[in-house]
UniProtKB/TrEMBL annotation, chains A, B:
Cofactor dependency: Mg(2+)
Annotated signal peptide: none
UniProt-recorded name of the protein: Probable 2-phosphosulfolactate phosphatase
Family to which the UniProt record says this protein belongs: Belongs to the ComB family.
Gene3D superfamilies xrefs: ComB-like (3.90.1560.10)
Enzyme class: hydrolase
Keywords, in A-Z order: Hydrolase, Magnesium
Pfam families: 2-ph_phosp
Catalytic activity: (2R)-O-phospho-3-sulfolactate + H2O = (2R)-3-sulfolactate + phosphate
Enzyme Commission numbers on file: 3.1.3.71
Highest taxon above the source species: Bacteria
GO molecular function: 2-phosphosulfolactate phosphatase activity; magnesium ion binding; sulfopyruvate decarboxylase activity
Length: 238, 238
């Protein structure tokens, strides 16, 4: 069967794609989708993405952990933000986390009408690709970007997925070709390449170099978070 | 003075940029902006970009040449479309051409509120960059794309401009970094690289290989078309 894989470089372009019959992979490498993958892999029961910090408050009395971040910093009074080091097993196993982020949650909400929405990061790259290979649907890789703008780190991850899936797909868009080529330039030193990004400069100003390094590790997780209703949970049967 | 150069990868993202004080370079390599540069360089008095084929008809009784194209083909009854070979001196010198195209004209119209709107193509790359270097404004490189989607050929041209201007600018966005890297991969064989593009496959189906090769020539024109009112005319004093 002919299969199409496309890359949507920012959420602002999502309306150009017919996603109802597709699998959408949401990508926000620094740091939302990396932390989501790590948290689900570490046994979090669910992670609930919300669009606004204020939406978190609706969950305050249910015993959930509340994670809120704006412009890369933890919002005062919340349990934690987007750092993957907050999503270790001792903190999240068996727990539900309510998460709001600047860009990742927005992309997730825009992707909801897709046939299936899953979460990608370098941490679960191989597990994600192995699963995508076994499906019979088209794939849209949705980069969360930065305030609706293109960013490098999400794009090179999309390129890594295109590179891995290319032999099984027949249709590619120009964004996928570009993403794959950028990944080929970046892959031998992801950290140095991401260092060219304006977003990473913002991140460095926040003193989260360890977070960045963590998010660029390959294949330390097997979990694939999938959107079920309002919750991200572990995809079963992989 | 700190100067910023950014790349808007598709017209659908133009609202993310504050262009009122900037110079916007409109880019539609295959083939609108290549033909516009070639036509102005060959002495066309003006080229008037319009958004709809029907808008051309408003100019029908003024003795202008009418150029209309949709989805890469000349519209029946018009003088010509977007092929640069229609914009030779013997056809256009001293004439005004009314031009409508699928993507380029749309980008031009969206850029109108900029401080200045000029036209870029590989044909006038060096002349354009030389002029941009002497200005004191920020620069936005606006890729026309294909039906609001990212395309390779416009992006690598944007990358060529970023590459040339980098020493004089202080602020770059991630799209500019990516475009420059893609250009570095493409520059030794632009035709082969553009061959990876979905759009170029559509072009090849239209049997316009000679057009594509023509549009990928470097620096055969000195003219920089600039938008004045509704008209694209030669920038004076360069």
């Amino acid at each position: 069967m002919p299969r199409k894989i496309e890359v949507c470089l920012t959420p602002a372009l999502i309306d150009l794609y017919a996603i109802e019959e597709s699998i959408v992979v949401v990508i926000d490498i620094l740091r939302a989708t990396s932390s989501i993958v790590y948290g689900i892999d570490n046994g979090a029961e669910a992670i609930i993405p919300v669009a606004q910090v204020e939406d978190c408050l609706n969950y305050a009395d249910r015993g959930y952990l509340l994670a809120a971040e704006r412009n890369g910093e933890v919002v005062e009074g919340y349990n934690f933000g987007n750092s993957p080091f907050s999503y270790t097993a001792d903190k999240v196993a068996g727990k539900t986390v309510v998460l709001t982020t600047t860009n990742g949650t927005k992309a997730l909400h825009l992707a909801r009408k897709a046939s299936q929405v899953v979460i990608g990061s370098f941490l679960n790259l191989q597990a994600l690709c192995n699963w995508l290979k076994t499906q019979d649907k088209d794939v849209l890789l949705l980069c969360a970007g930065w305030k609706d703008q293109f960013n490098l780190e999400d794009t090179i991850f999309a390129g890594a997925v295109v590179h891995e899936l290319r032999p099984l797909f027949t249709d590619f868009d120009d964004a996928g070709v570009a993403a794959e080529d950028l990944y080929s330039m970046a892959k031998d030193n992801l950290r140095a390449y991401v260092g060219k990004s304006a977003h990473s400069h913002r991140m460095m100003a926040l003193n989260i170099e360890e977070d960045i390094k963590f998010c660029l590790q390959l294949n330390i997780c097997e979990a694939i978070p999938v959107l079920e209703g309002d919750n991200l949970v572990a995809l079963k049967g992989i």
